[in-house]
Amino acid sequence: MQIDIGINETNRTEIADGLGRVLADSYALYLKTHNFHWNVTGPMFQTLHTMFEGQYTELATAIDEVAERIRSLGAFAPASFSAYAELSSIDEEKGVPAAKDMIAQLITGHETLIKTARSLYPICDSADDDATADLLTARIQVHEKTAWMLRSLLEG
Prior knowledge:
CATH topology: Ferritin
Protein name: DNA starvation/stationary phase protection protein
CATH superfamily: Ferritin, core subunit, four-helix bundle
Radius of gyration: 16 Å
InterPro entries: DPS_DNA-bd (IPR002177), DPS_DNA-bd_CS (IPR023188), Ferritin-like (IPR012347), Ferritin-like_SF (IPR009078), Ferritin_DPS_dom (IPR008331)
Family: Belongs to the Dps family.
Helix content: over 70%
GO molecular function: ferric iron binding; oxidoreductase activity, acting on metal ions
Strand content: under 5%
């Protein structure tokens, strides 16, 4: 069926492709955060275990919202580990780093995701896609706040 939402097919495809990268980064960060939730040790265990749970829970909701926006634009959302590995800019952690290294990796992950999301603003602006821009703005706000909170754990 034809999609007629005021955004042409070329722009919808380009935006959906960009959102696929946001989705892949979000999923990679979700997996990393969940890994760290399960495997953190040390004197900050309780604080980090609880904090990481809140973060991966928030990311799970965000993943669904991003995927549904991709579908609203008429594209299929990437949904496999191989697709995420290809599209994501966030490095996978295969080991169990020390707690402070976990925090540092999550900061980097959130900052990477922020940059991926920001990269879509030009096409959203040119296509008058306020809905995607609003979604990206909300995601950026969450990731900036989370990165700040994580950085605060390493200061002082």
